[in-house]
């Protein structure tokens, strides 16, 4: 990016930081654009030069570009799953303590605010095509390769599983849960060798 573009990204990130603090402290619905502008000491019109709506503040992702750059720099020969886990850990470790906490706030709201979830579905964010582009590039394969698509779908499944755990109150930090789930894949697909049981036995085990 040019110097001008980098400055714009820094300003956008700073506005998001103030917004996420307010969302965390007083609630997403209760926070207005005027609140965010006041906290950042800018005008309302300045806010709208960087974000079209309040929802766009949550959709602005500063971590994914870092992950893509780190993935491109992974040493040749690194096993793919190990590379993905390492990039995940390192990208979040590169953030300061507050930035990591606020990213958890952003991701949590993206999961729970209906308007944001609807936008992500409409845009097909984190769709299999996006994963396949990155995985295909990392492995020197075509994005349409069956193994690339399968691995990409597994990564999508891991994210859905983590979201379900978080929604059920079974995890504290999204990134830690994601890392743990990816770690479980290192020993193979969970339950792949689990024997299928008759319905009566399943009911007796769950009761």
What can you tell me about this protein's structure?
The chain is mainly α. 72% of the residues lie in helices and 0% in strands. It has helices spanning 3-26, 33-40, 44-50, 54-59, 63-72, 80-93, 97-112, 114-123, 128-139, 146-167, 174-185, 199-206. Helix 1 crosses helix 2, helix 6 (80-93) runs antiparallel to helix 11 (174-185) and helix 7 (97-112) packs across helix 8.
Blueprint (SSEs and pairs):
Layout: H1 3-26, H2 33-40, H3 44-50, H4 54-59, H5 63-72, H6 80-93, H7 97-112, H8 114-123, H9 128-139, H10 146-167, H11 174-185, H12 199-206
Helix pairs in contact: 1-2, 1-7, 5-6, 6-11, 7-8, 9-10, 10-11
Spans of at least 5 consecutive residues whose pLDDT stays below 50 are: none
- What value does the average pLDDT take? 88
Tertiary shape: globular
Please give the radius of gyration in angstroms. Answer: 20 Å
* Binned strand content: under 5%
What is the subunit organization of this protein? single chain
Beginning-to-end CA distance, first to last residue: 59 Å
Number of discrete helical segments: 12
Structural features:
0% strand, globular, single chain, mainly alpha, 207 residues, 12 helices
In short:
The protein is mainly alpha-helical and 207 residues long. It has helices spanning 3-26, 33-40, 44-50, 54-59, 63-72, 80-93, 97-112, 114-123, 128-139, 146-167, 174-185, 199-206.
């Amino acid at each position: 990016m040019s110097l001008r573009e980098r400055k714009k990204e820094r300003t956008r990130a700073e506005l998001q930081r103030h917004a996420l603090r307010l969302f965390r402290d007083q609630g997403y619905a209760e926070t207005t654009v005027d609140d965010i502008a006041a906290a950042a000491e800018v005008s309302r019109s300045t806010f709208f030069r960087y974000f079209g709506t309040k929802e766009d503040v949550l959709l602005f992702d500063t971590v994914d570009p870092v992950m893509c750059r780190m993935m491109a720099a992974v040493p040749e020969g690194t096993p793919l799953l190990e590379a993905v886990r390492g990039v995940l850990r390192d990208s979040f470790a590169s953030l300061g303590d507050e930035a990591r906490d606020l990213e958890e706030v952003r991701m949590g709201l993206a999961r729970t605010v209906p308007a944001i979830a609807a936008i992500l579905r409409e845009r097909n964010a984190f769709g299999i095509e996006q994963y396949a582009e990155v995985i295909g590039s990392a492995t020197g394969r075509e994005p349409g390769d069956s193994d690339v698509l399968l691995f990409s779908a597994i990564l999508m499944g891991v994210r859905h599983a983590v979201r379900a755990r978080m929604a059920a109150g079974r995890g504290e930090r999204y990134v830690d849960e994601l890392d743990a789930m990816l770690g479980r894949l290192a020993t193979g697909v969970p339950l792949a060798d689990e024997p299928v049981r008759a319905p009566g036995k399943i009911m007796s085990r769950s009761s």
